[in-house]
Design brief:
248 residues; 4 helices; 8% helix
């Protein structure tokens, strides 16, 4: 018996809401050959190479042609600036003054005494000195070199020299011989002498020495000099000849 109220369709599927989707079709039941492939964005050459130029054309013309249309955008720079490196070569004498060397005492010859009207020799045993320190938190070695000396003799007289003085022994000279740093007092008494030493400086962080601008003046401690008067008299014989004679 044929049921005349039934119908069959070949090549089509009649689905109603809630019916199960055909497993051979995508989830949206769109036939595979009718789906659109995703679009691929086309790079606009004007974004990078203005004027409609190809990269070859731009690099051939524009780097050397001030009239070339457009320019390649410069890369954006970070807003934060990187901290600048510390240049210890910009240091001045004030930056190393705390590492100044100890100044030696001045010596008066002969034996811290002198005779009125005769030269008293002053000598400072000094030379370059190296000390460890820091410049802008960078470890360095600082070299202090004495370059001039201002002698204060304690009686109001002063003298500036480029020499720290030389002993009579080193000069192979007799006592009371005048030297570039000696001074003759005009009256007896005790006088407080000292020397102001002027230094220059250089520094090194291990890659070579560089000068430190400026000078540093440091005083010595006070040295007290006793000056006496000596009376002389004419005698008939020397003390060798007459050990019991006057003044012998």
């Amino acid at each position: 018996m044929v049921n005349r109220d039934s119908s069959v369709s070949i090549g089509a599927v009649d689905t109603q809401p809630g019916d199960r989707a055909d497993p051979k079709l995508p989830a949206d039941n769109t036939p595979r050959n009718t789906r659109h492939a995703p679009s691929v964005p086309v790079e606009d050459p004007d974004v990078v190479y203005p004027g409609g130029l190809s990269s070859e054309e731009w690099f051939e013309r524009c780097p050397y042609d001030s009239l070339c249309r457009g320019t390649i955008p410069e890369p954006e720079e970070d807003d934060e600036d990187e901290p600048a490196g510390v240049d210890i070569r910009t240091a001045t004498i004030e930056d190393v003054a705390e590492y100044a060397p100890t100044v030696p005492d001045v010596v008066a010859e002969p034996g811290g005494m002198g005779v009125v009207g005769m030269p008293t020799n002053f000598v400072l045993d000094i030379g370059p000195q190296e000390v460890s320190g820091e410049i802008f938190d960078v470890p360095v070695t600082v070299r202090f070199t004495p370059v001039s000396y201002l002698f204060h003799y304690g009686d109001g007289a002063t003298q500036e020299t480029s020499s720290p003085g030389t002993s009579w022994t080193d000069l192979a000279a007799a006592q009371f011989t005048a030297t570039p740093t000696s001074h003759a007092y005009s009256s007896p008494g005790e006088f407080d002498a000292h020397v102001d030493v002027r230094y220059t400086a250089a520094a090194s962080a291990g890659t070579g020495w560089f000068p430190v601008p400026g000078t540093l003046t440091l005083p010595t401690d006070v040295t007290t000099v006793r000056i006496v008067e000596v009376e002389t008299a004419l005698v008939e014989r020397t003390c060798t000849e007459d050990p019991g004679g006057p003044g012998c």
